[in-house]
Write a structure and sequence with these properties.
alpha/beta, Transcription Elongation Factor S-II, Chain A, Rossmann fold, 7-stranded mixed β-sheet, 18 helices, 9 strands, disordered N terminus
Length: 451
């Protein structure tokens, strides 16, 4: 949308046009810091590239750094956004998206870093990082964020051990769990997965950010910071997806988890998914991640597989037991990992049915879709200047492939579905409540509620 004004009651996109806004500070400070770190990481690995690829590796390192330095300069001086020059499968749809934003006149200067939607230019930066690598084989597949993700995982070991130990105890006694205990365990693990979302490396611009203590111990003290808690609707959705099978045995539904960060958050998602399967609340879990490194700490297929292998190999009984179990879920097809180019594009999710009908159809096959994290929330709501009391269903703008729930700690200034006065009260007490990661939501919507 090239225009700023409210179109058919839809508010404008958040953007860095508003000096001093969180979008402005992100583009002015946080994104250049991330680019500087990427350049530094590539430079530090110069010897590794030389050992692996000889002179060609050194050349690729130099050229990639040149492209990234140019990108940083474009960003800092508010230059127009450029079309992508690589030949990857998603390049054409990115370039078409740019043309749509340039409006009917195709004005190349109309789309720039500080003037255009924040969601678009932030996604575009990560896609340009990939372009810089892809244009320079043999280092095209290098994950510039891998070191940070690995470090975050290892720094969270205590919390991972505590979580796997808890899961082990639950699984050992699962036959004896009453319905109330099942609900209680579900609520705990859903909230651990919610608060696992605090560990986000793009928000800390790649600074250390890991889960040091067991989140299970802090759930009751964190409860007041959950601004909307629809966990009971999530539970009822899982229960209502259970149906008698052919032999009269009850079969459960399929749960899809649209992942966010690697490290502790991914482990918290795997633990929740394990519990859903082992307790019979779900028969299958499909995980959706990114096709390439994205927003510093987002999960790729390598992160997914690596995390399961690391957990298997851990020198800790409950961790390694969990890892072995997860590996067998993957082998049996009870768990599966999927990626799709749409997740690494700038579109809000209301565009999915038109722009990625195959992905939309996949999600329609789920009985429940859990969307993890802040970026997914921004895309669910279009990253727009919604009033805090606007309904979650209104902000979704028709995106209802299946019953869905957002598990998100707040790190961007968009939040809908609050009670009248709730947002104002928070703003007067804590001006940065929308971006500090201190508050969270479990927000649910079902297409059934629209009928």
């Amino acid at each position: 949308m090239a225009a700023d004004k409210c179109v058919h009651g839809v508010p404008p996109s958040l953007s860095a046009k508003v000096v001093g806004s969180f979008a402005y500070l992100t583009i002015r400070d946080r994104l250049p810091t991330i680019l500087t770190k990427v350049v530094d990481t590539i430079h530090r690995n110069k010897n590794k590239f030389f050992e692996e690829y000889g002179e060609e590796g050194i050349q690729a390192e130099k050229q990639t750094i040149g492209l990234l330095s140019k990108l940083r300069n474009e960003l800092q001086t508010d230059k127009p956004v450029l079309a992508l020059a690589d030949s990857l499968q998603d390049a054409e749809s990115w370039n078409q998206y740019l043309q749509r934003h340039q409006g009917p006149q195709g004005d190349p200067d109309s789309v720039s870093w500080f003037q255009s939607p924040w969601l678009y230019v932030e996604c575009y930066m990560y896609r340009r990082i990939q372009e810089a690598l892809w244009l320079n084989p043999p280092i095209s597949d290098y994950d510039v964020f891998n070191e940070a993700k690995t470090q975050s995982y290892f720094e969270s070991q205590q919390a991972v051990m505590a979580l796997c130990t808890y899961l082990g105890g639950v699984n050992k006694n699962k036959e004896d769990l009453s319905k109330n205990q099942l609900l209680d365990t579900f609520n705990k693990l859903l909230k651990v997965s919610l608060w696992g979302n605090k560990c986000d490396l793009s928000i800390s611009a790649g600074q250390k950010n890991s889960q040091k203590t067991s989140p299970l111990d802090s759930l009751s003290s964190l409860q007041p910071f959950i601004l909307v808690d629809d966990s009971n609707l999530v539970w009822l959705t899982l229960i209502s997806a259970q149906r008698p099978g052919q032999s009269g045995k009850i079969t459960a539904g399929r749960v899809d988890i649209v992942l966010d960060n690697a490290g502790f958050e991914l482990v918290s998602d795997l633990v929740l998914a394990d519990f859903l399967i082992s307790s019979g609340l779900a028969r299958e879990v499909q995980f959706h991640g990114k096709c390439f490194p994205w927003f510093v700490s987002d999960v790729t297929v390598n992160d997914f597989q690596w995390t399961i292998r690391q957990t298997m190999a851990a020198n800790h009984m409950w961790m390694s037991k969990s890892g072995v179990q997860w590996q067998s879920y993957v082998k049996e097809g009870v768990w599966s990992y999927h990626d799709h180019p749409f997740w690494t594009q700038p579109h809000e999710f209301s565009d999915m049915a038109a722009d990625a009908p195959d992905l939309y159809a996949t999600l329609q096959g789920a009985d429940l879709v859990l969307f993890k994290g802040d970026l997914n929330y921004r895309k669910l709501t279009g990253d727009r200047e919604w009033d805090h009391t606007a309904g979650f269903d209104t902000a979704l703008r028709g995106f209802t492939p299946a019953p869905l729930c957002s598990l998100r700690t707040l790190k961007a200034n968009v939040q809908v579905g609050l009670q009248p006065g709730q947002g104002e009260k928070l703003t007067s007490q804590e001006p940065d409540w929308m971006t500090s990661g201190k508050y969270a939501v479990i927000q649910f919507h079902s297409p059934k509620s629209e009928q």
